[in-house]
């Protein structure tokens, strides 16, 4: 690769930046204004969810978005604090410091730095494929459970009680213990906020569409709901002096651009946060890439997952040095950005400028914003993540996947995110390996009038006496290396008339060293019994692998290109095809 | 299953016991006498290797062999202390107690009990297949490294120095530090023993065979070598009063049948020994089953791995309550047993009687047996386990397996058995998953004059313009769920003329929920691009799985039974086959 090409690969901005024009500028500016307005309450809310002061949410939405604009490959992805990553942040930091303390905020910087370092390292080593090990059921289960956990965790703000708890049971017990302390005014604001936001989402959107508003404009109005709730509840607090009646408000937020901060680097802290950082990186990456791919597919653009790792890594390191906390590409903010017409990452840069202005000048207006309203916006937002339909869909015809979803949801709710996701990943790998360790092997016969072979139990096929044709439906490797030997020992004991065995290898993609030994043993067993062992439809890569092995050398039979060739030769019938030649 | 059949399954003795006759009795008795003589020095040696008093080796060879005779399925397997398991025992016990202490011997009982419990549980749950996860390269690498470690660890007895060390480097450094303390007489006995035993093995055996002795008899003479060495060196010690000159001898061994003992069950000890017990169970089981299978194959008998787990479990629990330590089916003792003509497990029972007599009456004769001789027998025995040829064989055409062997050997030697085997298992799984996450996908075409489709890059095949036929060489599941989408996006961008894509699914054995979503996304992508997506050669189980899914419902194309059917319909050419009908 030329130095310039390398530079372009690592700096996608060089690509779109060259072609930037006035029309793109106008569209990006419009999108940025809309996104900025939406992001102000969202940033404050997710900072609260992460257990951090409100300004951290604003800071985490400024520099990271700028760095992603330089290094990221998605044109519309908006990077900043998101619900699930904020939950993971709170759960990780709760282990090392008390929420609200200086150590807690410093540890948030360290966590962002570590996540950024992990993401960068994975990107530079081009290990983006590792995210594939999080299966769809694990991700779905985890997101659903996180949505429920987050919503449950925010109820304390809606009720105005000092409850705690990390797991669903812990939160429930803690809330139950504080039921006597519920504050009426807070509940009115929080409960009212939830009802209003749900109505906006479920009632207003369809209503506006019926009025003839375009779907995009109607959605935009729905997305504006939280802004309306924030303004209305802030004005209510101020008008009725509710802060004096015990309604918790955001309070004093410093007027400042993001400060320059240094993460704490004590060895103990780095050790404690290493696993959570890895988790946040991988989950944040998976979430971000799936959003980016969805948006890119709409416009036929391309996402490079390895470069995305670099973009998100830079964003998190940026967050670490500017008073933020771990960030990733968020679904709702990105969709708003795309719907509002953003054409290039410059829209993100303009959003950053907008948020910078807000951080410097608008924060006094936020003083009387009730925390209950922020909690209401979080609850309504995360409940849309909860999707239990996957349980029904996997139960029908993908039971192993059902087991994985159910395990992930239950363990995440009851024992926390790390155990839930870890168990989900291990269970999905274990179930897959269990399946491959006991593969399906079909006895096949010829479908009359064709050269095609199918399972004798499912199709009406021709077979020949003394000829056993087996289709092995799995790669042969250590977990099933001796399966064929065991299976044929039983089969031969039951049927003494077998003279030839043909293994149809169309589904054998790999033969490892253990399986090679297994095949050798099988060959010896069949040879001792006076039975021929033949292979058919062995693929190129497998044939390359077996060439020059003892097994192929001593093979007590032949290797046929196709199953039909084996049939023709071993049954002595000329195939219809050959007859015609 | 009838109660009687259940009883027969769990008590194989009911099966062979019914048909036991005079001829079998004579053969079993002869075999038992030979094996008893061989087992006396071997039992003492492996007890020493495990860090236990010599009588523990005798005890561990008595009751376990009886219990295995009742519950085990192999006709010739001899159960007792073996080298590798004794090494694992020493390494586990060294973590919890000082060798030679009472706590050490009690912990050995606990370890045997835990291993027995694990084996029994695995057997009752029919989880014997779990042993398949130890691939051939991991087992080979581990056995080779263990052989080297054991031999190195025994050098201290040959040199007569009080060295220690657990890893190759540790042992080497410790020996180097004691080079000044080497005892001449001990070295003469130990070194002489090694030279003699190597000569017996490499020189005497071939010599006797050249003299016309049968291979069996010659091998038997070779196996008798250690007995000769034991007798000769014991007489030498007595004759020259070498014990007074500092030659370490076995010393006083109590004259007793195996005592009734109770393992220690403190929670801390159980926790500390849980992982080593699991390891010993699985490794001991794998070793034992492979020996049993080899012997059974010679006589066309059958081994039931799940029942073997029960037999070995019972044997270990027996060891725990009769002053023993962890045992398993050993290679050399089993081969001698089989070669000496053992026909049924009764031979094992007679061996137990023989060893019982030895434990009661012959132990005073062992007083002057030098430990250096025992060490020499161990060293020569385990060096035959060392097989570095697997490194060469895997290097040639199975590089991932090479990586696994090399890692297992190196880490076992340098960091101990648990880390070595653990890393080997994890690496073999990871390499397999890595491979399946980036599967081989071949573009195929029709081999002229047949109905067989092959890789266009390897074979001279027909293709058709606008028709892309891809053979997917892997099951579709979460680790590669989006691979086809990514691959086709690139392929379609490069070739704008494609109108139809046929996925030849002969190697797709599984489609999980994640892959179903991936296929749906692929279908949408192709539909939006006006390209048809077709499937061919979908197997029965996969078709069952996909029936009633959104993907198949919305499929923008057809499902063909064979690739040839797809070719005929999509190219509009009548196949030669159809033309003939």
Automatic annotation (TrEMBL), chains A, B:
GO biological process, one term: transmembrane transport
Topology relative to the membrane: Multi-pass membrane protein
Chief localization: membrane
InterPro entries reported in the protein's UniProt record: SLC26A/SulP_dom, SLC26A/SulP_fam, STAS_dom, STAS_dom_sf
PROSITE patterns: STAS (PS50801)
TM ranges: 29-50, 56-71, 78-98, 104-125, 137-155, 182-200, 227-253, 273-297, 309-327, 373-391, 403-431
Keywords assigned by UniProt, alphabetized: Membrane, Transmembrane, Transmembrane helix
Pfam families, alphabetized: STAS, Sulfate_transp
Gene3D superfamilies noted in UniProt: STAS domain (3.30.750.24)
Cellular localisation: Membrane
GO cellular component assignments: membrane
Protein name per UniProt: Putative sulfate transporter
Lineage, top ranks: Bacteria, Pseudomonadati, Pseudomonadota, Alphaproteobacteria, Rhodobacterales
């Amino acid at each position: 690769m030329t130095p310039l090409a390398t530079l372009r690969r690592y700096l996608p901005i060089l690509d779109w930046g060259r072609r930037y024009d006035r029309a793109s500028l106008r569209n990006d500016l419009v999108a940025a204004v809309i996104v900025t307005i939406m992001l102000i309450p969202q940033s404050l809310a997710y900072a609260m969810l992460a257990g951090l002061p409100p300004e951290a949410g604003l800071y985490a939405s400024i520099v990271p978005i700028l760095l992603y604009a330089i290094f990221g490959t998605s044109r519309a992805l908006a990077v900043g604090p998101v619900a699930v990553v904020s939950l993971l942040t709170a759960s990780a930091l709760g282990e090392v410091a008390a929420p609200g303390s200086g150590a807690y905020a410093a540890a948030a910087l360290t966590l962002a730095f570590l996540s950024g370092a992990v993401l960068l390292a994975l990107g530079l080593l081009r290990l983006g494929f590792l995210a594939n090990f999080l299966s769809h059921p694990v991700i779905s289960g985890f997101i659903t459970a996180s949505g429920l956990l987050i919503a449950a965790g925010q109820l304390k703000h809606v009720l105005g009680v000092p409850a705690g708890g990390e797991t669903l049971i812990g939160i429930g017990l803690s809330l139950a213990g504080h039921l006597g302390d519920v504050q009426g005014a807070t509940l009115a604001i929080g409960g009212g906020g939830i009802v209003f936001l749900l109505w906006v989402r479920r009632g207003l959107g369809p209503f506006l569409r019926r009025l003839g508003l375009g779907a995009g404009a109607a959605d935009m109005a729905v997305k504006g709901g939280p802004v309306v709730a924030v303004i209305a509840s802030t004005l209510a607090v101020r008008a009725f002096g509710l802060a004096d009646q015990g309604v918790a408000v955001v309070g004093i937020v410093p007027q400042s651009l993001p400060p320059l901060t240094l993460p704490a680097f004590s060895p103990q802290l780095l050790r404690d946060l290493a696993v959570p950082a890895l988790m946040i990186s991988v989950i944040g990456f998976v979430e971000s890439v799936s959003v980016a791919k969805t948006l890119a597919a709409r416009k036929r653009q391309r996402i490079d997952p390895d470069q995305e790792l670099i973009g998100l890594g830079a964003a998190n390191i940026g967050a670490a040095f500017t008073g933020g906390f771990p960030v990733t590409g968020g679904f709702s903010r990105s969709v708003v950005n795309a719907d509002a017409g953003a054409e290039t990452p410059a829209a993100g840069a303009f959003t950053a400028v907008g948020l910078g202005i807000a951080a410097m000048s608008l924060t006094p207006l936020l003083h009387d914003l009730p925390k209950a309203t922020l909690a209401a916006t979080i609850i309504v937002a995360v409940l849309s993540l909860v999707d239990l339909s996957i349980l029904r869909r996997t139960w029908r015809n993908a039971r192993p996947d059902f087991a994985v979803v159910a395990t992930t949801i239950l363990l995440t709710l009851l024992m926390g995110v790390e155990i839930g996701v870890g168990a989900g990943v291990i269970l999905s790998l274990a179930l897959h390996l269990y399946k491959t360790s006991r593969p399906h092997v079909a006895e096949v016969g010829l479908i009359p009038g064709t050269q095609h072979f199918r399972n004798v139990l499912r199709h009406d096929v021709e077979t020949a006496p003394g000829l056993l044709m087996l289709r092995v439906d799995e790669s042969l490797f250590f977990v099933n290396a001796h399966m064929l030997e065991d299976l044929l020992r039983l089969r031969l004991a039951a049927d003494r008339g077998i003279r030839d065995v043909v293994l149809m290898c169309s589904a054998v993609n790999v033969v490892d060293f253990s399986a090679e030994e297994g095949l050798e043993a099988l060959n010896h067993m069949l040879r001792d019994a006076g039975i021929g062992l033949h292979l058919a439809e062995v693929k190129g890569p497998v044939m390359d692998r077996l060439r020059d092995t003892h097994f192929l050398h001593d093979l007590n039979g032949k290797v046929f290109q196709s199953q039909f060739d084996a049939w023709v030769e071993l049954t002595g019938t000329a195939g219809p095809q050959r007859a015609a030649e």
